[in-house]
Design brief:
This protein is α+β, with helices and mostly antiparallel strands. The chain has four helices and 17 strands. A hairpin with a 6-residue loop joins β5 and β6.
Length: about 250
């Protein structure tokens, strides 16, 4: 009889010990339930990214964050060379939220291509600088919409202000370089230019609708179309045997 009592007592002790072990082996999720908080697991491709939960730093991925108070949070993931990843999450009591973020590479920005000025224009600029005295565009020339461009190695044009000079200003739309047989024109962004094979007297606004070039040449009998910085449409051209004798006629379309 005593043996039976001893056996029962031993079994009782084993059951008590088992319950204690079970209690000690309680999972993290169960602990979170009892504390009213949750878990968050964050993985990234590639790894070793910086993880921020709300305004706080949580570590490098992969990372598991425990004991997070129930509520809504924003998560931000950063890694050099990659675009930031952001997301909103809701932490629930006793539950594990999982975020797997595939980070995207930063787009490569192509280096800006520097447009070279043609050598013939550079030579004209150098020659212009050697001149000791600049010629002046007269009010009479401006009023007649004619410019003695052939008298100048280099000439700058601001059509909106009807200003034509041998010194550049920030408002200029284009400049011309006198060559042995023609003129070379260069635009100042955002103005654009194009040359068409029509005489200045018959050119219409529609002829100049698609001016989109940076450098253009102008020969006798052709017309240079200009879309100015102020988006006005201008046509410029004339006839000559020698560019030094050229008087360019210009008109601005309404």
């Amino acid at each position: 009889m005593k043996l039976n009592y001893a056996l029962v007592f031993a079994l009782f002790l084993i059951i008590i010990a088992g319950c204690q072990v079970k209690k000690e082996l309680q999972t993290e999720e169960e602990k979170e339930i009892s504390s009213g908080s949750g878990l968050l697991s964050v993985e990234t491709i590639p790894s070793e990214a910086d993880v921020f939960l709300g305004n706080g730093y949580a570590g490098k991925s992969p990372v598991e964050i425990s004991n997070i108070a129930v509520g809504s949070y924003s998560i931000t993931i950063k890694k050099e060379g990659y675009m930031d990843f952001t997301a909103d999450i809701v932490i629930e009591a006793g539950k594990k939220s999982i975020i797997t973020a595939e980070l995207k590479l930063m787009p490569k920005v192509a280096p800006e291509t520097k447009k070279e000025i043609p050598k013939e224009i550079e030579a004209a600029i150098a020659e212009q600088k050697k001149e000791s005295k600049d010629k002046e565009i007269t009010d009479k020339e401006i009023a007649s919409n004619k410019i003695a461009a052939g008298s100048y190695i280099l000439l700058y044009y601001d059509f909106s202000k009807k200003k034509f000079a041998t010194e550049r200003s920030l408002e200029d739309d284009i400049f011309s370089s006198r060559m042995p047989t023609h003129f070379a024109f260069t635009r100042f962004a955002p103005a654009t230019i194009k040359t068409i094979d029509k005489g200045i007297e018959i050119v219409t606004k529609e002829d100049c609708s698609s001016a989109d070039n940076t450098f253009q040449t102008l020969s006798s009998g052709q017309t240079l179309c200009v879309l100015t910085k102020e988006k006005n449409v201008v046509a410029l051209g004339s006839y000559w045997d020698n560019p030094k004798d050229a008087n360019l006629t210009w008109k601005m379309f309404g």
